[in-house]
Each structure stands twice: as structure tokens, then as C-alpha cells.
Sequence to fold (148 residues):
Amino acid sequence: MKPVRTLLVLASEAEARLLVNEGPGRGLADVAGLRADDFPDTWQEFTDDAGRQTAGPGMGFHAYEARETVRDARRTTFAGLIVEAMEEAWAAGRYDRIVLAASPKLLGELRARLPAPLADAVAADLPKDLVKVVARDLPSHFAEVAAF
Fold:
């Protein structure tokens, strides 16, 4: 019986790791890593304060709320970069399934951005930030969804 190859994606708002598992008992090996700091697009300057407009001295002013916060904009941009890395790894790796673990808001952003072939391959997801966990300790976090 052929072992199931799993692409494991761990992500936070600052970092992402892609790992591979070749089957139960085989452990995890790093495939790729991303850091938001390495991409200038994720750290471009956004306005953080609401804008203001004044008509003149003694007249009223108007303020507006930004559509999204700086943190939300950076999360959205970094999620797109993570999905691109997942697409490249998926195309090159002949994987059978994907398991995602990311902070809750980032996980939602990743799921919304996944193209159909990758979305169909997602076997499980965990709303946890496990990026800093050492590879040998990761299987216990996924015991209910996958055997590494």
C-alpha cells in the first residue's frame, strides 16, 4: 500500500513553514519557509489613522474610517504569498493531501484564497499558530486529524 504524502502548512502573520510527511512514522521534513519581513509588499506603508478633511477655518471637518487596519492589510498580503508557495510546492511534490495550521484569522484568509485544486486537497485544518513548534513535537498536535 502506497503511503499518503501530506503537505503540512504552518502559518502565522509573520512566518510560514511548509513541511512534508511521507507516511505514518516517517516524521516531518521542511520543504520551504517564508518570512513576511522578506517581502517588501507586506510591509509597505499603510495609513493607520482615519483620514480628515477640513473645509476651512471655523468650518466643520469630516473623518472617515480606513477600510482595513494595517495588520489586516499585511495579513491579506502575506496570505497571498503563502498560497503562492503552496501552489508551487503542490505542483512539484506529488502530494495526496494538505493539512493547514494557522492563527484563526489567517486560516480564514488562506481558505478564502486557496484555488479549487488546493481547497479540495485540504484534509484538515487547525486554528492554531504552531510555526515555532519544533518538527519532532508537531505530530502530537495533529493526532486527531493525521498520523505523522
Remarks:
- Residues 56 and 62 are 11 Å apart (CA to CA).
- The chain has a mean pLDDT of 85.
